Amino acid sequence: MTVSVETTTAGPFAGNGSQTIFPYGFLVQRSSDLTVTLTTSLGVETVKVLDIDYTVTGLGVSAGGRIVFVVAPAVGDSDKGV
After folding, report:
1. What is the spatial distance between Cα 32 and Cα 14, in angstroms, rounded to a whole number?
2. What are the tens digits of pLDDT across the range 9-46?
3. What is the pLDDT of residues 45-78, one digit of tens each?
4. What are the start-end ranges of the E strands in 1-77?
5. pTM of the model
6. What span, in angstroms and rounded, lies between the C-alpha atoms of 15 and 77?
7. Residue 37 contacts residue 48 (beta carbons within 8 Å)
8. Where do runs of H (alpha helix) occur along 9-73?
9. CB within 8 A of 77, min separation 6: which ones?
10. To which H or E segment does residue 80 belong?
């Protein structure tokens, strides 16, 4: 039996050096189900660490919630949540 998995993405969102809150519009049951990736202006991707680099609101809410960064992504950087 094949089990299909759907990956939903929020973003990418452009960093401006001051914005720390970014929305996602889909159900996330557990924070460990979400991967947040930051891409620098040079194209280098880094997976961010929950409770160190960011926190998550809206767990268990079908309409989604927010990813809240501790430090705002820099101008030229972009982030996305999967």
Report:
1. 24
2. 887 888 899 999 999 999 999 988 889 998 988 889 99
3. 999 999 999 999 999 999 999 999 999 998 888 7
4. 10-14, 21-24, 36-39, 45-47, 54-56, 65-69
5. 0.83
6. 5
7. yes
8. none
9. 14, 15, 38, 39, 40, 41
10. strand 78-81
